[in-house]
């Protein structure tokens, strides 16, 4: 486990930029617990790391894909062997309940188990030619150098969604994790390096967001970045998309969400309440797939709201190593942001779910709270009566807050589900297959759950969003291979002469004037 030590960027396995401003990564459940001191690198660190990766990538791309798959297999076994230690570090550094952190680490193992076989399945195709003695082929080739910028709410699982397929496909990677997840990132990187990865193929840079953007701009200008992967806010994703577009690159953007859950008259209400509790308040609502707005049919509204209100009030919040629904917010910056969101609650809203609103303190207590009051703990909030023009309805809140509104007809529910412009995840609770499929056909979200929560990804399904949630790129499963490879075609003419496509092609002369005689009619 990484203890309270100084962390530096590592380029080609060597400490780099060891002088500079310091960031203190602290335990959000007990901020007096210093997890790591992190030396933040300047913008030139990104460019230098990309140049190093560019050199290393040329040889890495020549390693046979099945051998690269063996390194992925090694990583999976190393993560599995270090599962408890890595999960404990994640919980300590970002406040995620330990069972969720264990699940996050398992996500890395699942990702490795899926992609280790893709080293033997980076299939191209043999394509028939329109001319004799000529053969056509297609190949997947590495993109080159990938710069990956990740958030800290899933400090190891989401990075694995980028790193594992990118490395498998023959790319070199420069990884810039969130500062507040530096220790978790360093621990995961240590496991990747020890899986057998050559020097310089994975480089780790600690930097602020502004310096990262400046460094990325320089690296793109210098031509040493071929692909950018970003997980984070929609606002930052827009800036990265614009920057990459100026260099004719399409980044892989996985952004925020305002994920709807529709509760129909034919829903199992107990199941729907359980799903809303988990997807709305798990990880303290700090998932891109967290439940944003409950859209409940007017016939079951009162009963559903009463049940959910009781469950949320009864839920235990506190120390993330204990048996709790959720722990603290990620750090003081996220606490400040959530305080601003709470300011969006208006007079026409009804607030439910807890004995208070805002940070849990001695003066603003939460019944059953089991944590240290110095931590960044916040009351869960159900905001009933939101309108489609409310900021709470339209914006991602990224905290333990769920909005609630009602509908009468399915068309109205679908319209409300699409109204925010986000398009990541969605959910519907119903026992009617027709309702489920109509919702699936018309909802703008890239991911749809039926009788399940808005949260929860599996390593072999495409993950990503539309609209304000992303640019249509997908992670996980075979679909992510299109992010980290480019198609290359080759034609091989063994006729011994120049055959010109579309010109030297054999013609067939049909008799298109023929009609069946009457005796056949």
UniProtKB/TrEMBL annotation:
Membrane-spanning residues: none
Keywords: NAD, Oxidoreductase
Secreted is among the record's keywords: no
InterPro entries on file: Ald_DH/histidinol_DH, Ald_DH_C, Ald_DH_CS_GLU, Ald_DH_N, Aldehyde_DH_dom, ALDH7A1-like
PROSITE patterns for the chain: ALDEHYDE_DEHYDR_GLU
Gene3D superfamilies on file: Aldehyde Dehydrogenase, Chain A, domain 1, Aldehyde Dehydrogenase, Chain A, domain 2
Domain named Aldehyde dehydrogenase: residues: 21-489
Keyword Transit peptide: no
Entry superkingdom: Bacteria
Single annotated GO MF: aldehyde dehydrogenase (NAD+) activity
Catalytic center residues: 254
EC numbers, comma separated: 1.2.1.3
Pfam families, sorted: Aldedh
Subunit structure: Homotetramer.
Entry's family note: Belongs to the aldehyde dehydrogenase family.
Protein name, entry field: aldehyde dehydrogenase (NAD(+))
Species of the source: Herbihabitans rhizosphaerae
Lineage per the UniProt record: Bacteria, Bacillati, Actinomycetota, Actinomycetes, Pseudonocardiales
